[in-house]
Amino acid sequence: MPVLSAIPSFDKMVHGSLYGVEGFLLYLAIRWPGRQGFSLLRALTVAGALAIFGTADETHQAFIPGRSMEAMDAVADGTAAALGALAASGVSGRTRPDTDSAVIRIRGGLVGDPSLGSG
């Protein structure tokens, strides 16, 4: 892709897009105790996990012929993951139903009913 590589910092935009989406989706996928809305701790946990993953990915590239390790790619990964997780935290309370108060019937009992034995 010689045309795309001519765009300054194009690889950082790709890293940012991918890790931003990952941060957004991972934030929404993780069940976290507490209220449904904004959770800074969950956003930081997601960002930290993806920053570690991005750093490990960059480190392993040092051992692949034709690839190179770039610290700024790891920075772009962590920053985008944090922004994606923060964006997801802003919409998570509005897009998810309150599942803690939902009553679901399974085989005549209620989920969370002590008579089911599963609490």
Describe this structure in words.
With 119 residues, this protein is mainly α. It has one domain. It is 60% helix and 3% strand. It has 4 helices and 2 strands, in the order H-H-H-H-E-E. It has helices spanning 2-5, 10-29, 40-61, 71-95, and strands at 105-106, 109-110. The protein has a two-stranded antiparallel ribbon with strand order 1-2. A hairpin with a 2-residue loop joins strand 1 and strand 2. Helix 2 (10-29) packs across helix 3 (40-61), helix 2 runs parallel beside helix 4 (71-95) and helix 3 runs antiparallel to helix 4. The longest helix is centred in the last third of the chain and has 25 residues, at 71-95. It is elongated, with a radius of gyration of 20 Å. The termini are far apart.
Q: Which residues sit in consecutive blocks of at least 5 with pLDDT less than 50?
A: 100-104
Number of E strands: 2
Strand order of the largest sheet: 1-2
Largest sheet, in brief, is:
2 strands, antiparallel
Rounded to the nearest angstrom, the distance between the terminal CA atoms is 56 Å
Quaternary assembly = single chain
Compute the CA-based radius of gyration.
20 Å
Number of helices: 4
Structural class computed from helices and strand pairing: mainly alpha
The portion of residues forming beta strands comes to under 5%
Helix content: 55-70%
Mean pLDDT over the full residue set = 78
The best one-word shape is: elongated
Q: How many structural domains does the protein architecture include?
A: 1
Give the topology string: H per helix, E per strand: HHHHEE
